[in-house]
């Protein structure tokens, strides 16, 4: 027969001083749920020692800290993953437009060369050379005497052909600009949505932390009160 100064814990089935006896109905619900997770038969009519209760209090605090660290890591991973996903969104415009045809490549090269100082200098030298040959070498009786009708014809034909080719290249450039504008819009919209989601996650995390911290403070106060009671 057990002594009146001791009791048997319903958790460990060990004998403890009666002063350490704690009723299950006085235990806070989060810690009671943690105990019942290990001992499903532990109900409000059962008892345990203060040492066992403190062990589960410490376990509850440790579990909370581990969960919080995990939530912060998951949040950080979501942000990093979201940033990495931007690589697929900010793909090059050339890839989305498709492979250029031979005509488009020629148009781009003609436009690039026709709009450069190299073309202006070379064409100016060609015209000057043409005029000097006909005036000074052929004494204005050559293949294209003054007023250089053949040269005017060549210039007119060149302008007539060069203009639509340059316009083709400009149209392609406008198409690329439209694709870039669409990309900018999509990136801005995605960024705005991600910022909103991030704010919601942070608000939820802060509220959750506040509730858990209040619960932990209550548990710590109970532990301090138990220690003070044992000291007295």
Characteristic terms for this protein:
mainly alpha; two-stranded antiparallel sheet; 74% helix; rod-shaped
Helix content: over 70%
Question: How would a crystallographer describe the biggest sheet?
Answer: 2 strands, antiparallel
Assembly annotation = single chain
Estimate the mean pLDDT confidence: 76
Report the total helices.
Answer: 6
Distance between the termini: 30 Å
What overall geometry do the principal axes of the alpha carbons give? rod-shaped
Order of strands in the sheet with most strands:
1-2
Number of strands: 4
Query: Proportion of β residues?
Result: 5-15%
- Low-confidence region ranges: none
Q: What's the SSE pattern?
A: EEEHEHHHHH
The value of Rg in angstroms is 43 Å
Q: Structural class of the helices, strands and pairings? A: mainly alpha
Q: What layout of secondary structure does this protein have?
A:
Layout lengths: L5 E3 L6 E3 L3 E3 L5 H10 L8 E3 H40 L3 H5 L4 H13 L2 H21 L11 H83 L1
Antiparallel strand pairs: 1-2, 3-4
What does this structure look like?
- This protein is 74% helix and 5% strand.
- 6% of the residues are buried.
- It is rod-shaped.
- The strands form two sheets. A two-stranded antiparallel sheet has the order 1-2. Strands 3-4 form a two-stranded antiparallel sheet.
- The model has no long low-confidence stretch (mean pLDDT 76).
- It has 232 residues and is mostly helical.
- Pfam families: DUF1003.
- InterPro entries: DUF1003 (IPR010406).
- It comes from Flavobacterium yafengii.
- This is DUF1003 domain-containing protein.
């Amino acid at each position: 027969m057990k002594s009146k100064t001791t009791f048997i814990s319903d958790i460990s089935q060990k004998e403890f001083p009666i002063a350490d006896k704690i009723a299950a109905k006085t235990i806070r619900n989060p810690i009671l749920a943690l105990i019942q997770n290990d001992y499903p038969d532990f109900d409000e009519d059962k008892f345990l020692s203060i040492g066992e209760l403190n062990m589960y209090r410490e376990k509850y605090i440790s579990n909370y800290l581990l969960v919080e660290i995990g939530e912060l890591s998951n949040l950080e991973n979501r942000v990093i993953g979201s940033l990495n996903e931007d690589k697929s969104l900010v793909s090059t415009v050339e890839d989305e437009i498709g492979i250029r045809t031979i005509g488009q490549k020629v148009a781009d090269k003609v436009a690039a060369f026709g709009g450069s100082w190299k073309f202006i200098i070379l064409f100016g030298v060609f015209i000057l050379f043409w005029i000097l040959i006909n005036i000074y070498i052929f004494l204005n009786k050559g293949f294209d005497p003054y007023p250089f009708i053949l040269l005017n014809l060549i210039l007119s034909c060149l302008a007539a052909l060069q203009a639509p080719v340059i316009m083709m290249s400009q149209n392609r450039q406008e198409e690329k600009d439209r694709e870039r504008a669409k990309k900018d819009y999509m990136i801005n919209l995605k960024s705005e949505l991600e910022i909103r989601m991030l704010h919601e996650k942070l608000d939820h995390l802060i509220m959750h932390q506040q509730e858990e911290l209040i619960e932990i403070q209550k548990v710590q106060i109970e532990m301090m009160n138990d220690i003070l009671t044992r000291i007295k």
